[in-house]
Design goal:
The complex is a heterodimer.
Chain A: H1 2-15, H2 17-23, H3 25-50, E1 61-63, H4 73-79, E2 84-90, E3 92-97, E4 100-106, E5 117-121, E6 129-132, H5 134-140, E7 147-152, E8 159-168, E9 176-179, H6 181-188, E10 195-200, H7 206-216, E11 223-225, H8 226-273, H9 275-283, H10 288-327, H11 339-365, H12 387-410, H13 421-461, H14 463-473, H15 476-514, E12 519-523, H16 531-539, E13 544-550, E14 552-560, E15 563-565, E16 572-575, E17 592-593, E18 602-605, H17 607-613, E19 620-625, E20 628-637, E21 648-649, H18 652-657, E22 666-671, H19 675-690, E23 696-700, H20 701-744, H21 746-754, H22 759-795, H23 806-823, H24 825-833, H25 836-840
Parallel strand pairs in A: 4-9, 6-8, 16-21, 18-20
Antiparallel strand pairs in A: 1-10, 1-11, 2-10, 3-4, 3-7, 5-8, 6-9, 7-8, 12-22, 12-23, 13-22, 14-15, 14-16, 14-19, 17-20, 18-21, 19-20
Helix pairs in contact in A: 1-10, 3-8, 3-10, 3-11, 3-20, 8-11, 8-15, 8-20, 10-11, 12-13, 13-14, 13-15, 13-22, 14-22, 15-20, 15-22, 15-23, 16-19, 20-22, 20-23, 20-24, 22-23, 22-24
Chain B: E1 14-25, E2 32-43, E3 47-51, H1 58-65, E4 73-78, E5 81-82, H2 88-98, E6 99-102, H3 114-125, H4 131-141, H5 156-169, E7 174-178, H6 186-203, E8 207-210, H7 214-217, E9 222-227, E10 230-236, H8 240-251
Parallel strand pairs in B: 3-8, 3-9, 6-7, 7-8
Antiparallel strand pairs in B: 1-2, 1-4, 4-5, 9-10
Classes of the chains: A alpha+beta, B alpha/beta.
């Protein structure tokens, strides 16, 4: 009997391989994702290793390390050792060029050990000569032939530097210079280099050369092979990749859990459709155990097929993608063939499916044999949930609420000095997990109320809408099972979106302080900008916008009456920076008062000055400098310090009354046009304005802002990509649920067609049902995601604001509804093609 | 025995009529002529039963008459409208607005209440139900206490009465009933048949019923006999005995 029951189930599955794949689609996708992740890690790791721009591949031996720097004198002695073809000293020094900075590296410029390629001019060969990268040309205004002066290394006084050429390199930060080791060490007066790279002559024996090296160097030199050093560098890079993929693994694990839920739900549907057949088996003598094992075997078979297909698909994609990328000129390495991982994924798929199938199998096996004798072909699904499940669900809700409340009570206050975000975050993750399981348990109870609210407009819209809403509401358990997975995905994505938006506001605030404009021109050592520089810069309107020259003095004190406030001995840094002229002022966070209240007789304080002096917004005080005083009122207090590290921001007139010098200390300006071109034009204009003025430097603050923005964007997209895995599984779940429901309700479709529902009407109804899963899931997901994201942002303790990016969230909602509706399009098409006569199954 | 070959159908007067209807399933050697030139008409406000053995083509005839299926050749005319060769859209609208159905297996939508099931075709057509008629039907069918129930909470007889109300409430030109008593016990079956007969008498409804049960056929005003896809005879004012005799003769090849 056992074998017979098994045969019935398995042969049924084998006869309809499409159904098998449909049931296991979520497993297939998750196998693809898991094995795809394994391959992605291999691809990333290999690509990182293969494209590492560290020690060149031609390096045979490496002598010394930054910890054990070899002497410069060793270079010439090593060149004399027989069998040595090339000796290159590596070192890196910072060179000050007036107000800017150049990173000068030793590189031969030609030959296999070179990391640069000359693109213009000639490579340096005499002390005081240097080649720079193309971006450095633009940023620092150093063209071939320019003579500037700088100092660095052991050299303390400025010495001329001539730009002889432009070189292309793997990384170009915009402040990079190169010259041969001898040139660098001679100009900078170096006695040691970081390390020495050796290339052996063809046919030379490494051992002989090592002995030769030992003969010319002081005792016990550190000698490693180039391969060893490269391996170390690669391992360090791979280690980073590995750590990144641990994070990826966490998100993949969530997707696996989502897949388990989806598969459980699909099996429940499939078994419900076979209730009569199972009852018949029971009626003719199969016991419950037999049915459970037969159904579980079917699950295992499904898992096996889905796992193998998923792994194979991932392998195909893993090999095709790098090949395609390479064809388009990107250096991407192919993955290996991780057989053990492949087997593990397939086994994991089988285990996951078997675990997922157990609960449905047990409940299906409980079918009464009497069910076989019932006239109606489908039995109505249960609507409610059992008492045990209700109690468990409520307990989970209580647990989630308690953990959430604990997080809330631990939130840091603005005054709190030290705060460890880890316990709060852990509590929050725990609360979220409990909330999710509560959702799984109580989902069927939530579907109808949520549907009653959300389905209202749809119900008014047309009878079709009413039917679709009724179709979902008629099987609340099914709707809950699939909507919960959608909700999980939406919760994660909305949390990422909200977190990202909050972080962006935070980052904009910080940037508004440290980089209030694209460019800053300053005079060094507290001297004043020559008036000509400001005049010339103001004339360059084509390239520059929003010029804001400012004065800054460091000897202003605050008085109340005649009592000195605060502890600053010499005074507070005070600036008359024209805040309204800077667009970034809008991003500034204000602790007290309003920035708009600023004006003559009003000041804005940095938070630290306010704390030291005990002043609050609305208080009056007296500014004092060199015997002169001005009475002022505090208009606003900023969280920490003001833009450009100002402690006090005053009006221009007040600074005049304090007898501050008329000349400007610096100026801020924005590029008139966006993009790299506009920025280069701005740099050029300011450089011309500075002309030959001594001690006046230019800083491109926008570069810092761009790096910051790019980093934030990248992190956000990676996070969205990772949580999208769960959404993918959710959409697959909606698709397979709709497809299976459509099969089950073929008769219903036939009836609707018979009583006058048109073919497009039926399609629209089924697609709407599918989309409704998305509506329910996305609503629950947002209801959970928004508060959790806010709590998480607060629990991080970075004083980030609560941002609610409405547009992205509405877009997310719409995208989810569209995606889930699309998942129902194919099943709906199939259902609408069936003729009503066939669907009604009336025998003629 | 009053069997006679029918005269040419008077299509204009009939509620629905078939003219030389042929339906072939499959092709080549395996082709089956389910209908082999059927010409018959069904009078207005008349209760007609279509009878025949399994495979006689009675269900196929009904599907073609009701616009559920398309014939291979021949014509179907519903109240002066030609249904032959019409698009699926047109046929769907005809079914929605001019035809009512009662099925052997009730075919109610499980997620809708009895009341919602009754008004389903009207909802689909975007029409308001005639409140008076609806109240009358609910009263006659004894569904007053059951309107808020879902099909799974109703007995077979109650479900079929809901299906009857659904078919009648839109005042269709023709109600097609396909073995409406097939899944019911004899008492519930008798109730359903009485309701169908009363709807013809009281509301002037046209009813065409497919059945193989002589007791059910005896409720009709007229019986059309089908054999091998052809009209094999007709009985006016049938009773159980005359129908049983006719069927026996048919089976004997008379």
């Amino acid at each position: 009997m056992r074998a017979a029951a098994l045969r019935t189930q398995v042969s049924a599955a084998a006869r309809r391989p499409g159904r098998l794949i449909l049931t296991g689609l979520a497993v297939l996708v998750v196998s693809f994702v898991v094995f795809g992740t394994v391959l992605a890690q291999q691809i990333t790791e290999r690509t990182t290793r293969d494209n590492l721009s560290g020690t060149p591949a031609a390096t045979d031996l490496v002598i010394g390390s930054p910890d054990q720097p070899p002497a410069v004198a060793a270079l010439s002695r090593l060149r004399a050792v027989p069998g040595v073809a090339e000796v290159v000293g590596r070192t890196e020094i910072g060179v000050s060029l007036g107000e800017s900075y150049l990173n000068l590296r030793a590189d031969p410029g030609t030959g296999p050990l070179s990391t640069t390629r000359l693109v213009e001019g000639s490579y340096p060969d005499a002390p005081g000569e240097v080649a720079v990268t193309p971006r450095t040309v633009e940023r620092l205004g150093l063209t071939v032939g320019t003579v500037t002066s700088g100092f660095g290394g052991e050299r303390t006084g400025p010495s001329p530097l001539t730009i002889t050429g432009v070189v292309a390199t793997a990384d170009d930060a915009g402040y990079d210079g190169y010259a041969p080791d001898a040139v660098v060490s001679a100009w900078a007066g170096l006695r040691t280099v970081s390390q020495i790279d050796l290339r052996l002559a063809p046919g030379a024996s490494a051992d002989t050369v090592r002995q030769g090296i030992a003969g010319v160097l002081p005792a016990d030199p550190q000698v490693r092979t180039g391969a060893e050093v490269r391996q170390e560098e690669a391992d360090a890079a791979a280690d980073q990749v590995g750590r990144l993929f641990v994070l990826v693994g966490l998100f993949v694990a969530v997707a696996v859990a989502a897949a388990a839920l989806v598969v459980t739900s699909t099996f429940r549907i499939v078994f419900a459709q076979r209730m009569r057949q199972l009852a018949l088996l029971r009626a003719v003598g199969a016991n419950r155990g037999t049915l459970v094992s037969a159904l579980t075997a079917e699950g295992a078979l499904t898992g096996l097929v889905a796992g193998v297909v998923g792994v194979a698909a991932a392998l195909a994609a893993g090999y095709a993608l790098p090949a395609i990328l390479r064809a388009s000129g990107k250096a991407v390495s192919s993955p290996g063939l991780p057989l053990a991982a492949a087997v593990a994924v397939v086994v994991g798929a089988v285990v996951l499916t078997v675990l997922a199938v157990l609960a449905p199998a047990f409940s299906a096996a409980r079918v009464s044999p009497l069910e076989a004798l019932r006239a109606a072909s489908t039995t109505a699904g249960r609507r409610g949930i059992g008492v045990a499940r209700l109690v468990a669900g409520l307990l989970l809700v209580v647990g989630a609420a308690l953990a959430g409340a604990a997080t809330f009570s631990r939130l840091p206050t603005p005054e709190q000095e030290s705060y460890d975000p880890r316990p709060g975050m852990l509590l929050l993750v725990g609360s979220g997990t409990l909330a999710f399981f509560a959702l799984v348990a109580l989902g069927p109870l939530l579907v109808r109320p949520v549907l009653a609210v959300l389905g209202w407009p749809l119900r008014q819209f047309a009878p079709l809408g009413r039917l679709a809403v009724g179709g979902i509401g008629g099987a609340p358990r099914r709707a809950a099972a699939v909507s919960v997975v959608v909700a999980l995905g939406v919760t994660l994505i909305s949390a990422v979106v909200i977190g990202g938006a909050s972080m962006r506001v935070l980052s904009d605030r910080e940037m508004a302080l440290s980089a209030p404009a694209d460019f800053e021109v300053t005079a060094s050592n507290g001297s004043l900008l020559p008036d000509a520089v400001v005049t010339r810069a103001e004339a360059a309107r084509g390239a520059l916008a929003r010029m804001a020259p400012y004065r800054r003095i460091d000897d202003v004190t605050l008085l109340r009456g005649t009592d000195r406030l605060g502890s600053a001995e010499s005074g507070y840094p005070t600036s008359d920076l024209d805040l309204p002229a800077l667009p970034t002022t809008e991003d500034l966070d204000v602790t007290q008062g309003r920035l708009a209240d600023r004006g003559p007789g009003r000041i804005v304080l940095g938070g630290w000055v306010a704390r030291e002096t005990g002043l609050r917004a609305g208080d009056t005080a007296r500014l004092a400098r060199a015997g002169k005083t001005v009475d002022v009122r505090v208009a606003a207090v900023l969280p920490d310090h003001g833009p450009l590290h100002a402690g006090i921001l005053t009006d221009r007139a007040d600074l005049d009354r304090l007898g501050a010098p008329k000349g400007y200390s610096g100026l801020l300006a924005d590029a008139a046009r966006p993009g790299e071109d506009g920025r280069t034009a701005g740099v050029r204009a300011l450089r011309q304005a500075i002309g030959g003025s001594d001690g006046v430097g230019l800083a491109v603050l926008a570069d810092e802002r761009d790096r910051n923005d790019a980093l934030l964007d990248t992190l956000l997209w990676i996070a969205v990509g990772l949580v999208s895995l769960t959404v993918l599984i959710a959409v697959v779940g909606v698709g397979s649920t709709t497809a299976l429901s459509v099969v089950e309700r073929e008769r219903e479709s036939g009836l609707l067609r018979a009583v006058g529902l048109s073919r497009p009407g039926l399609r629209a109804m089924l697609t709407a049902e599918s989309g409704l899963y998305g509506v329910i899931g996305a609503t629950i997901g947002l209801l959970l995601g928004v508060p959790y994201a806010w709590l998480a942002v607060q629990a991080l303790g970075v004083n980030a604001p609560l941002a609610l990016p409405v547009l992205p969230l509405v877009g997310l909602f719409a995208a989810l509804v569209v995606l889930t509706a699309l998942a129902g399009v194919l099943p709906a098409r199939r259902a609408s093609r069936v003729s009503p006569v066939t669907a009604l199954g009336i025998d003629g | 025995m009053r069997t006679h070959v029918p005269a040419a159908p008077e299509t204009s007067r009939a509620a629905v009529a078939a003219v030389d209807l042929v339906k072939v399933y499959g092709n080549g050697d395996t082709a089956v002529r389910a209908l082999d030139g059927v010409s018959v008409d069904f009078g207005r406000a008349e209760f007609t039963a279509i009878m025949g053995s399994s495979g006689s083509g009675k269900s196929t005839l009904m599907h073609c008459l009701a616009g559920l299926d398309t014939a291979t050749s021949g014509r179907v005319v519903l109240g002066g409208t030609e249904l032959t060769g019409r698009s699926d859209r047109t046929l769907t609208r005809v079914r929605r607005e001019r035809i009512g159905f009662v099925f052997q297996s009730f075919n109610l939508l499980p997620q809708l209440t009895a009341a919602q099931n009754i008004t389903l075709p009207l909802d689909l057509a975007g029409r308001q139900p005639d409140g008076e008629l609806l109240a009358h039907l609910v009263d006659v069918l004894g569904l007053g206490q059951r309107l808020a129930h879902r099909p799974s909470e109703l007995s077979g007889g109650q479900q079929q009465r809901v299906a009857l109300a659904r078919a009648l409430v839109a005042r269709p030109e023709v109600v097609f009933a396909d073995e409406p008593t097939g899944n019911l016990d004899s008492r519930s079956g008798a109730e359903v048949l009485a309701i169908l007969r009363d709807s013809v008498r009281d509301l002037g409804q046209t009813v065409v019923m497919v059945t193989h049960d002589p007791i059910a056929a005896a409720y009709a005003d007229r019986v059309v006999l089908l054999a091998d896809g052809r009209v094999a005879g007709e009985i006016d004012k049938p009773n159980q005995g005359s129908v049983t005799d006719a069927l026996r003769d048919l089976a004997a090849g008379a």
